[in-house]
């Protein structure tokens, strides 16, 4: 039994917590693999952890090439001249969500032939592992070996649809920090037809209280987006979504709590961008190597008052445009008697990422933010989203 169809069936019928072992057996039986390791990315996407219980000193030698494959999102072949053994390190990604890396050891002479087949297999495995993730605790435990999540962070990460998304012409990535203790900052996104809707949120308060508020806000906006009858509004219309979400928050908290929110809808075919600025998250446009703030009319945060109405603003993107969305934990990060990070370093850090894909660009800006804090843990939640629009032809 060989081929993608057979591995799909094997993974589909395996218990959710045994997908790694099922894949290992399949690779051995059908591709001549001597060994295999599935590496999961941690919550910061900076460290890979093997999804296995037993410790193997040989894994330390695999970590560096596996990390290169994860960072570049291209296969890395590890071999030595004159050696009969090779190891292939293959990115495991699902619609732009970087899950981890699959490392496969096999006879060196088979590596060129097996590489295209194993790349396709890694893509199939990415879909299966993403589906299994919500059905077992195993992969959650693997990801957090370097640190324990707070209750607030647990809620935020479980609420997130995925940290990345890609389709022809569009790439999106986002990151929450401090990854293991994030409270109120969050982002959400959904694709419906030609419209990609993105929201960046900053729930009032800290810790669990902020996480509960943000969870309500995210689900209120999802409910609003999914409750508008077909034909009455396009998926890109934001005003009704904002109103319904604001009313839900106000009815729960009576105006004592609110959520600073930036709402976006991008028509991925035409580049039309619809926006509502309802709080502190800021958006920066990168065009032609220059970075500028997108100045929007400030409107009330969601839930501050009852019966609040919201007005959309619009902008036309150009091919190759990049958007960065950052929370106040990024642009307003400060140190005593010094300019804020947003005033001093943010634009420079963003310009330095122009040749990087969104996921790597976010990592670079986060590193710059940590350097600004001299390596100390972030004092406030930090959210960064990067969105590229590069259609193949003019709309």
Automatic annotation (TrEMBL):
PPM-type phosphatase domain mapped to chain residues: 167-389
Keyword Cytoplasm: no
Coiled-coil features, chain-numbered ranges: none
InterPro entries recorded: Bact_Sigma-Reg, PPM-type-like_dom_sf, PPM-type_phosphatase-like_dom
Entry keywords, A to Z: Hydrolase
Keyword Hydrolase listed: yes
Pfam families, alphabetized: SpoIIE
Protein name: Serine/threonine-protein phosphatase
């Amino acid at each position: 039994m060989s081929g993608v169809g057979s591995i799909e069936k094997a993974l589909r019928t395996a218990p959710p917590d045994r997908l790694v072992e099922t894949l290992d057996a399949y690779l051995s039986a059908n591709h001549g693999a001597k060994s295999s390791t599935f590496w999961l990315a941690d919550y910061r996407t900076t460290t890979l952890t093997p999804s296995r219980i037993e410790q193997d000193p040989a894994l330390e030698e695999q970590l560096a090439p596996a990390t290169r494959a994860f960072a570049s999102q291209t296969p890395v072949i590890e071999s030595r001249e004159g050696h009969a053994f090779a190891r292939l390190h293959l990115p495991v990604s699902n619609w732009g969500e970087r899950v981890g890396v699959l490392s496969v050891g096999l006879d060196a002479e088979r590596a060129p032939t097996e590489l295209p087949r194993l790349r396709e297999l890694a893509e199939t495995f990415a879909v299966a592992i993403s589906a299994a993730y919500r059905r077992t605790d195993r992969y959650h435990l693997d990801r957090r070996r370097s640190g324990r999540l707070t209750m607030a962070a647990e809620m935020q990460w479980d609420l997130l649809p995925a940290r990345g998304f890609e389709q022809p012409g569009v790439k999106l990535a986002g990151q929450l920090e401090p990854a293991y203790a994030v409270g109120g900052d969050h982002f959400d996104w959904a694709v419906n037809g030609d419209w990609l809707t993105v929201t960046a949120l900053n729930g009032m308060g800290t810790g669990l209280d902020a996480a509960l508020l943000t969870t309500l806000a995210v689900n209120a906006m999802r409910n609003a987006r999914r409750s508008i009858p077909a034909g009455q509004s396009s998926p890109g219309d934001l005003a009704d979504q904002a109103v319904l979400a604001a009313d839900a928050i106000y009815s729960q908290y009576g105006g004592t709590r609110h959520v600073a929110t930036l709402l976006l809808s991008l028509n991925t075919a035409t580049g039309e961008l619809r926006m509502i600025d309802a709080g502190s998250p800021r958006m920066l446009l990168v065009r032609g190597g220059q970075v500028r703030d997108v100045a929007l009319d400030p409107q009330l945060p969601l839930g501050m008052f009852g019966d609040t109405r919201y007005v959309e603003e619009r902008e036309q993107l150009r091919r190759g445009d990049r958007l960065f969305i950052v929370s106040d934990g990024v642009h307003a990060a400060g140190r005593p008697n010094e300019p804020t990070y947003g005033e001093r370093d943010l634009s420079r850090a963003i310009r330095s990422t122009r040749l990087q894909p969104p996921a790597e660009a976010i990592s670079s800006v986060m590193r710059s933010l940590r350097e600004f804090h001299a390596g100390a843990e972030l004092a406030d939640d930090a959210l960064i989203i990067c969105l590229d629009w590069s259609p193949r032809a003019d709309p």
